[in-house]
TrEMBL record:
Source organism of this protein record: Cyprinus carpio carpio
Cofactor(s) listed: Ca(2+)
CDD domains given in the database record: C2_PLC_like (cd00275), PH_PLC_delta (cd13363), PI-PLCc_delta (cd08593)
Protein name in UniProt: Phosphoinositide phospholipase C
Span of domain PI-PLC Y-box: 474-590
Lineage: Eukaryota, Metazoa, Chordata, Craniata, Vertebrata
Length: 739
């Protein structure tokens, strides 16, 4: 890998170009260039690679399978929404060298400690700034580096630090001297102040000092001595301090920068909720038109959409099925110019990836536009490809009285959501209705137009509601998720069965929430509901899922391919409970005896509002957003509360001029939270611009109930939801009862 290899980069059957790939000396960067493009080259970091797939495991490589054998082919899958890199090596041995090599490097990176990661980060900056590649940095290179790092420092101060770090007095900084320079540059005065407040001698925290800090600031109550000793053992770098059962400033900073010093309670990162409740008692991570990677009109359809969603813990994916050539059903967004893929390929991917991120059931939501003949083919593919993973009959073979739970009985099962010829009870008793179905449900209108928008004839292709014939084979695959048309809450209360599920456009759902919020919550305590984006969202934008969660809607389907605040909220909610894709709803939304109205939350039993106080202290190494030479950000922090309407709020700090490296605010923001169980808190950093819209820098979203109080770091994520170490915010959080 160090020597370099010529491989073919493949984009399609017709686009196959040779590129020269080489691993850089840092063992972190892969450099590649065209054989013809002169000096032009590209690089990517091993840290950006999520996985390496061997063989023909992408649509692109499958399309050229007749040309290149699988043992020469591999795919690099990147984090976030970046496209894959498909490669063909000159020989099987060469392919194996790169496959094993990159996997080993990914492993090394994942097993790196905090200190090693920071050293690696410093080393990366050194390489970027060392323009003449002589392994040394003169003062001019250091000045340029400061600008690259988002630091606006006066020349006199920069020269003073440079001279102090230049121990050899050579006029340049070498490796160790640069590390010293970096440490002086990043001296955390904000953390030092807290450390010295609790340190008896200003040099270290003795065990009692650390216990006092944990009790008074971090609000730890039980087993404080044991926890303090564990922190010393885990984070203290000095063996001498460990022997004294003490913590130095370095150890204290390591603890505060770790997952235990994070704002997100580590006890809630892993699976911690009761998973034995009925399916309708959970919020379920759900994707809309999963096959699309871009917009809804001309976008590319791909099985990659399913792989990405499932690997993110999504538990409900959607297929739009239409009659295809040679009797093979196809998947695409009907009546548009989106590309087409085969239904059987989607099912194969589902079988391979459904349970990589979570063992809990996956719901396959089928929008069926196929003839009876091709529906039989769909049923055949589902049965043959998925085998035992497909749930085809009620558990225990008995007529059920309620929805099963995600755990045990439904683990590693795929449930089909779609039309069914008869009720579950009749089907089990052998009574079959006429296979001529009732009205096509809302989600099967070809272009959904919300009632409260102007009707635009150029994109409106309303299909008359019609009767649809169903094949018995496909109908039999539907057990616990029978799609039915929604009439009214009163009708549902009297006639609906627990296994029936209705779909609502976002505007219809909002209308029901406005007019009958508590009835919608009650409906969702008994059975499943799905909410999906308006047909007018041709750009694949998303609606705010929080409004729907406030009413207890379980399957809130979003366009996973579109980054933004809506997907941040989705990622935030499902970041707890082991990223398993299921989050238990609050008790007052599961209990059919309670009346909870999201519009009037004060009226519920057990109403206990809380006060949230966030002191935004400082920021660390915020990423540059403007690649213009010498441009440095003016950061501000906005804290947003997303929850019931009464809780929706946002407040901002002031902006700091020209400092993205270590801005200090010490601004306190206060909020009242009326329904903490439903609230999400989003921290956003922006680059202030007085003449135009602020630029996004980073964000972090988490459930209010997962917040750890005290002095905490918030590790920021990019627009794509991927981590951007070591960018963080340092805050102090207090939560107090108001009643």
């Amino acid at each position: 890998m160090f020597v370099g290899t010529v491989m073919r980069k493949i984009k399609s059957r017709t686009w196959k170009k040779q590129r020269y790939f080489r691993l850089q000396e840092d063992c972190m960067t892969i450099w590649y260039k065209s054989k013809k493009a002169g000096n032009a080259h590209s690089t990517f970091s091993v840290g950006d690679v999520e996985a390496v797939r061997e063989g023909h495991q992408s649509e692109v490589l499958l399309s050229i399978a007749d040309e290149f054998p699988p043992d020469r082919c591999f795919t690099l899958v990147f984090r976030g929404r970046r496209g894959n890199l498909d490669l063909v090596a000159e020989s099987a041995a060469e392919a194996q060298s790169w496959i094993k090599g990159i996997r080993k490097l990914i492993d090394n990176l994942e097993n790196m400690g905090q200190r090693e990661k920071l050293d690696q980060w410093i080393c990366d900056w050194f390489k970027k700034a060392d323009k003449n590649r002589d392994g040394q940095m003169n003062f001019k290179e250091v000045r340029n580096l400061l600008k690259m790092m988002n630091v606006d420092m006066n020349e006199h101060h920069a020269l003073r630090l440079f001279t102090m770090a230049d121990k050899s007095q050579s006029g340049t900084l070498e490796d160790d001297e640069f590390v010293l320079f970096y440490k002086m540059l990043t001296q955390r005065e904000d953390v030092l102040r807290v450390f010295q407040e609790y340190s008896s001698d200003g040099q270290k925290l003795m065990l009692q000092d650390l216990k006092d800090f944990l009790r008074e600031e971090q609000l730890h109550e039980d087993g404080v001595q044991q926890y303090a000793l564990k922190l010393i053992e885990r984070y203290e770098p000095s063996d001498t301090a460990k022997m004294l059962q003490a913590m130095t400033f370095d150890g204290f900073l390591m603890y505060l920068s770790s997952s235990e010093g994070s704002i997100f309670n580590p006890n809630m990162v892993d699976l911690y909720q009761d998973m034995t409740q009925p399916l309708c008692h959970y919020f379920i991570s759900s994707s809309h038109n999963t096959y699309l990677l871009e917009d809804q009109i001309r976008g590319h359809s791909s099985v990659e959409g399913y792989i990405r969603a499932l690997k993110r813990g999504c538990r409900c994916v959607e297929v739009d099925c239409w009659d295809g050539p040679n009797g093979e059903p196809i998947v695409y967004h009907g009546h548009t110019f989106t590309s087409k893929i085969f239904f059987k390929d989607v099912v194969t991917v589902l079988g391979n990836y459904a349970f990589k991120a979570s063992q809990y059931p996956v719901i396959l939501s089928i929008e069926n536009h196929c003839s009876v003949e091709q529906q039989k083919v769909m049923a055949q593919h589902l049965t043959q490809i998925l085998g035992d993973k497909l749930l085809k009959s009620p558990l225990d073979g008995k007529i059920p009285i309620g929805l099963p739970s995600p755990e045990v009985s439904l683990e590693r099962k795929i449930l089909l959501k779609g039309k069914k010829i008869c009720g579950l009870e009749n089907c089990m008793n052998g009574v079959v209705d006429d296979p001529l179905m009732g009205e096509v449900s809302d989600e099967e209108d070809t272009a959904e137009i919300d009632d409260d928008h102007h009707r635009n004839d150029s994109i409106r292709h309303r299909v008359k509601k019609s009767k649809q014939r169903l094949s018995k084979e496909l109908s039999d695959c539907v057990v616990y998720c029978k799609s039915v048309h929604f009439s009214s809450f009163k009708h549902s209360q009297i006639h609906s069965k627990f296994y029936e599920i209705s779909s609502f456009t976002e505007s219809k759902a909002r209308k029901h929430i406005r007019e009958a919020g508590s009835e919608f919550v009650l409906h969702n305590a008994r059975q499943l509901s799905r909410v999906y984006p308006s047909g007018l969202r041709t750009d694949s934008s998303n609606f705010n899922p929080q409004d729907m969660w406030n009413a207890g809607c379980q399957i809130v389907a979003l366009n996973f391919q579109t980054a933004g605040v809506e997907m941040d909220l989705n990622d935030g909610l499902f970041s707890q409970n082991g990223h398993c894709g299921y989050i238990l709803k609050p008790t007052f939304m599961r209990n059919t005896d309670e009346r909870f109205d999201p519009e009037n939350p004060q009226n519920r039993d057990g109403y206990k509002p809380l006060s949230l106080s966030v002191q935004v202290i400082s920021g660390q190494q915020l990423p540059k957003v403007n690649i213009k030479e010498g441009s440095i950000i003016d950061p501000l922090v906005r804290v947003e509360i997303h929850g019931v309407p009464l809780d929706q709020a946002k407040q901002e700090t002031r902006y700091i001029d020209n400092n993205g490296f270590n801005p200090v605010w010490h601004d306190t923001l206060q909020f009242t939270i009326h329904v903490p169980e439903l609230a999400l808190v989003r921290f956003v950093v922006e680059d202030y611009d007085k003449t135009s819209k602020n630029d996004f820098v980073g964000q972090f979203t988490l459930p209010f109930i997962c917040i750890q109080p005290g002095y905490r770091h918030i590790h920021l994520l990019s627009k794509d939801g991927t981590s951007i170490p070591p960018s963080s915010l340092f805050v102090h959080v207090r939560i107090t009862k108001l009643m």
